[in-house]
Amino acid sequence: MNQSLVDQIDAILPQTQCGKCGFTGCKPYAEAILQGKADINQCPPGNQVGIQKIAQLLGVPEKPLNTAHGQPNSTPVVAWINELLCIGCTFCIRACPVDAIVGAAKQLHTVIAAECTGCELCIAPCPMDCISLIPVEKSTEAAVKKQAADLARTRFQFRQQRLAHKKAADTKGKSAKLTHQLDSGQTHSDTRKQTIISAALKRAAALRTQQQTSGKKSPHKPI
Ligand code: SF4
Ligand code: SF4
Ligand code: SF4
User: Given a cut of 70, is residue 8 above it in pLDDT?
Assistant: First the structure.
């Protein structure tokens, strides 16, 4: 795949990381476009401006936004947590693609508004329905928008790397546990074998003794 082209498409995408395009983030969507697995009009936050730029970059006809993937927000939004209701379950933290929520288990959680992309992914998992989206003033200046998109991209990539490391560590941990279980299973098996052999030897010795004893007493002792 042409990585430079992937990066150029990704640079056009808004980095909301909402998954509305049907992919896990903006870069996976950019890759899917180049692989022919996605159309250029599946990103609601990027809206028609984004579609137009991607069409120009790829030299293909512009298309209207496919609203089956959602509608663009009319105003910028960020998430807000009603801290009186929050029970600290951490479900929202696990859902946030850019680590914009801070909090610890059983403690109230807060959204870092400057880092929230308004992706909405934290809303559905909240069992207390205490997260809502609130409109915010965001600069429409291209440089400021780019800076915000770059920050979201970096935070998204950092999170992906962290999750990948965690997954690798978990797999390694499971593998080590399995090895330990197999090892201890082997040990148990060896111990069991030793016990069986030892019992068999004892039985054989007892039988020999019994035969010798009964042989001495036998009236029909062979000549
Ligand atoms: S902003 Fe959302 S819909 Fe647009 S490319 Fe990124 S993840 Fe997909
Ligand atoms: S806080 Fe919620 S809306 Fe904001 S980026 Fe994280 S998941 Fe998305
Ligand atoms: S999901 Fe809702 S209740 Fe759970 S920590 Fe987040 S805001 Fe609080």
Answer: yes
The CATH code for residues 3-69 is: 1.10.15.40
Nearest to 117 by CA among 76, 72, 158: 76
The whole model's pTM is what?
0.77
The CB of 29 under 6 Å from ligand 1? The reply is yes
d(CA 96, CA 44) in angstroms, rounded, equals 19
Look-up: residue for tokens 């890759």?
Answer: 31
Distance 108 CA to ligand 2 centre (A): 16
Hey, where are the domains in the chain? Answer: 3-69
Tokens describing residue 219: 């009236």
Residues paired with 80 in a beta bridge? 132
Per-residue tokens: 47? 């809206």
Token digits for 207? 């039988």
- pLDDT per residue as tens digits for the range 112-121: 999 999 999 9
Nearest CA to ligand 1 atom 6: 26
Nearest CA to ligand 1 atom 2: 18
Expressed in angstroms and rounded, the spacing between residue 143 Cα and the centre of ligand 2 is 22
pLDDT of residue 178: 63
- Which atom belonging to ligand 2 lies closest to the Cα atom of 112? 1
